[in-house]
Design brief:
Blueprint (H helix, E strand, L loop, with lengths): L1 H17 L6 E4 L1 H9 L4 E5 L8 H16 L6 E8 L5 E9 L7 E3 L1 H6 L9 E3 L7 H77 L1
Parallel strand pairs: 1-2
Antiparallel strand pairs: 3-4, 5-6
Helix pairs in contact: 1-2, 3-5
Amino acid sequence: MASNIVRAGVAAGRAYDAEGRRVVYFASGQRPASSITFRGLPLADSFTGFTDRPAYADARRIAGRLVAAYVDDEVDQVEIFYNRYFSALLQEVRRETLLPLQRATLLEEGGEEDLEREGSESPPQHRALVDYEPDPEQILGRLVPDYVEISIYRALLESTASEHGARMTAMRNATDNASTLIDQLTLEMNRARQAEITQEILEVVAGAEGVAG
């Protein structure tokens, strides 16, 4: 499962390389970090030791590093790749942009006032949905780190659930295959024993007939 995430991330990185953009990688987990290093790709940082049971503190540590890299102009965009969990049988690699945040829609078409102007040539007016206090910049400055932390924590949990689901499915398939193989071998063994018993009976009957003759 981790290999699918790495492949998707590397493919995206190569696409950015083709556009002339410099790409660096951050890896969560020992296997992804080793895979990226083995491929000779620039690994900016790695986070290990919590793959099977991630905690929110782990997400906060990763988020702090990524936000710092973005604020310090080490990177101008942060994308995350993870396995989206749907069921034990279905997981899907997802790609999301964490930074920069997409600009939120703060305006909407004026409702009834627009209806009154219907048919006129005047462009539709907009009105603010919410008045912010303090200003939006200060709010975003406080919320962005929380947003990144929560997004990363969700990705860690979903990837972990996907990994466990894939393992469970693989174990169930292995058990089913083993049961099928056992049934087949048992049937072959019974056939071989029956053939051996039949052969012994035929030999006994043939011997008895020879004595009687």
